[in-house]
Amino acid sequence: MSEVHAVRRGLLRDRCAAAGSAAALVSRPANVRYLAGGAPPGAVLLLGPGEDVLLCPRAPTGEPAHGRPDEALRIDLLPVPDGDPVVAAAGLAASAGADSLAVEEHDLTVARHRAMGKAAPRLRLADLGFTVEQQRIVKDEEEIGCLRIAAEITDQALGELLESILVGRTERHLALELERRLVDHGADGPAFATSVATGPNSGQGRHRPSDRRVEEGDFLSVRLGASYHGYRCEIGRTFVIGTAPAEWQIELYDLVFAAQRAGREALAPGAAYRDVDRAARHPLESAGHGEGLQSRTGHGVGLEIEEDPQLAPTAMGKLDACVPVTVEPGVHLPGRGGVRIDDTLVVRPEADGGPELLTMTTKELLAL
Fold it and tell me: Mapping DSSP to helix (H, G, I), strand (E, B) and coil, where does residue 158 land?
């Protein structure tokens, strides 16, 4: 992977040079990991003007959660662990002869930005913007391979839960068990806080598990994902507990399933972000559920669980091949519950079989 990370850094360096910056400072952890192979806590990456340097408050440990830095990359430890690596990086860039430094202003506090200016007053600070985030959107096959394994782990953990007794157990207990199973199957950890929602809580996109116990006849909606080598996936499924589903549950489930399928089928290189959102949103709006829908149908995934692109009504841009995204429509009926169906897919051209589905757990409405 050393060559891969060197190529990534080279692309960023060229873009900075074209914008008039002799050096760049990357501080957002996911961006540091993308370019350096690892992001030890607090580390920042300085690109140029000569040698690239990873500045760390403490020696990297190589823990899976942080990755392993590129062996070809120079690593500098701060002389004092409580020092600020962005300030040290500004001083290092200035001493190496840089007259300008592009920084991720969206990641820095005002206080840190000012401290950099004081440490290197002759260094002009420019905004790098979201250049690295944009570079991360299209994944290489090694990155997609990590996402594929993360999805396999997630499917395994969810599948095992579905084989256990659920009635009487709390949402919180089930969420903790799912996260333990993710780690048992080889995940670095959960990709995000696992959501388990039952009965009137089901179908909510950001429900925090409570002490409510699973009851017969409940909808049970689950949203989880594994992180593997830093790459994160997402799956969401809804089931019925104990008995055959009621008529209203079948109708609502079929509606959300149709919306999710429409969103998946709209994924193609060149498709506008907003058109994918519209494809999934239209069936739900036509059925009278438009008012309570989420602000977006899906989003990119990778080293972060919510990356660009955003599949939303006002989003600008078009999909490329090899972009992993989620498609996750849902409907929540206050006081009754609801349905969510989430998948992680990779955009592929029609000649390659169309969108590649990574999360394989059945979308059939099961009675557990």
Answer: helix
Dihedral angle of Cα 320, 322, 324, 328, to the nearest 10 degrees: 60
Six-digit token string for 148: 């594929």
What is the chain's length? 368
Q: Are 340 and 221 in contact (CB under 8 A)?
A: yes
Enclosing H/E stretch for 198:
strand 195-198
- For residue 243, CA distances in Å to 160, 179, 246 come to 20, 27, 9
Determine the pLDDT at residue 289.
92
Q: Which residue has the tokens 């519950």?
A: 337
Identify residue 191 by its one-letter amino acid code: A
Q: Pairing state of beta strands 219-224 and 343-346?
A: unpaired
pLDDT for the residue 1: 60
Q: Which residue has the tokens 């994944």?
A: 139
Taking a C-beta distance cutoff of 8 angstroms, is the pair 330, 222 a contact? no
| Bridge-based pairing state of the strands 100-103 and 124-127 | parallel
For residue 346, the SS3 value is strand
Chain-centroid distance, C-alpha 124: 33
Structural contact between residues 260 and 341, judged by C-beta atoms closer than 8 angstroms: yes
Binning pLDDT at 50, 70 and 90, where does residue 20 land? confident
Q: What is the mean pLDDT of residues 64-91?
A: 89
**Phi and psi based region of residue 15 (left: phi greater than 0; alpha: psi -120 to 50; beta: remaining):** alpha
| Bridge partner residues of 331 (DSSP) | 339
CB atoms within 10 A of CB 215: 14
